[in-house]
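Lab channel / #folding
Pinned by the channel admin:
"Please post every new chain as: sequence first, then the structure tokens as a reply. Keep commentary short and put observations after the output so the thread stays searchable."

First post following the new format, from NK:
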Amino acid sequence: MSWQVYMIICSDNSLYTGITTDVQRRFSQHLAGTGAKYFRGRIPHRLVYLEGGHNRSTASRREAQIKKLRSDEKRQLIVSTANQIDQKM
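Reply from TO:
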């Protein structure tokens, strides 16, 4: 099973980082309020970063690495070649 690491930009301009096997389903869950508690009081706007090719273990480690980055470093990652989605911020 292929796991993905993703980032979503939120209504307060913050960035949420998570992992999933199905990014469309997970984003829909966040929109519906059945995803992470982080979205209580925030609205997920759009997916801005996607990194695939992980197993559960490597996805979790990569998520932890990204969460430790400063906001400006996360935004640099979004515009980097590591981002596997076409829409850039």
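NK: Residues 69 and 75 are 10 Å apart (CA to CA).
TO: also worth noting, The two ends are 29 Å apart (CA to CA).
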